[in-house]
Design brief:
Helix content: 10-25%
Number of helices: 2
Structural class: alpha+beta
Radius of gyration: 28 Å
Shape: globular
Number of domains: 2
Strand order of the largest sheet: 3-4-5-6-7-8-9-12
Largest sheet: 8 strands, antiparallel, barrel
Protein name: NlpE N-terminal domain-containing protein
Strand content: over 45%
Distance between the termini: 81 Å
Number of strands: 12
Length: 171
């Protein structure tokens, strides 16, 4: 005995086997769609929320330099002895470098990896800022490429005397 069903939407008749095949196909396609759009595991989500919470409770410190058309803005936050923040260079007649830093203070010097974008290219280089008075002075020295980023050859021999002084601001 063959069971025939009438579909009011298409105004056609169909067998039960064809209806079941269509329904199974629908669920298979729906399942594939949702598996391709999986969310992050709940552990990552809770870790991300915890990170955002610790950033929002930590005090943000802002430092600025502005002279002769050049500006530098550094915004940092200490989260569990890890310094994270934003660093923006806008130097006269050069493309802006806008990026993030992540590092730590060793004695009075912040050593951090600066991941930035300039001219559409993402790069990573090490930066160093020394605490002096109410500000930070950027250190300079010879660099070399190591593991896809530029790092100081001799971090203990950095020159801070010629660096730009970023003054701490209230905002």
């Amino acid at each position: 005995m063959k069971l025939v069903l009438f579909n009011p939407y298409t105004k056609t008749t169909d067998t039960m086997q064809n209806q079941i095949s269509k329904i199974a196909s629908y669920f298979l396609i729906t399942g594939l769609f949702f598996s391709c759009n999986e969310q992050k595991p709940k552990e990552s989500a809770s870790t991300e929320v915890a990170s955002e919470a610790s950033l929002s409770t930590a005090e943000t410190q802002n430092y600025d330099y502005a002279k002769n058309g050049d500006t530098i803005h550094l915004s940092i936050c200490d989260t569990n002895n890890m310094i994270v923040g934003d660093l923006v260079y806008r130097l006269k007649e050069k493309d802006a470098n806008i990026g993030k830093i992540q590092g730590e203070f060793k004695d009075s010097i912040l050593f951090a990896d600066y991941t930035f974008k300039s001219e559409g290219v993402t790069s990573v280089r090490q930066v160093a800022f020394k605490k002096v008075g109410n500000g930070l002075v950027e250190g300079y020295g010879d660099v070399e490429e190591s593991n896809g980023k530029f790092v100081f050859k001799n971090p203990e021999n950095l020159n801070f005397s010629d660096g730009l002084i970023l003054e701490k601001t209230s905002n």
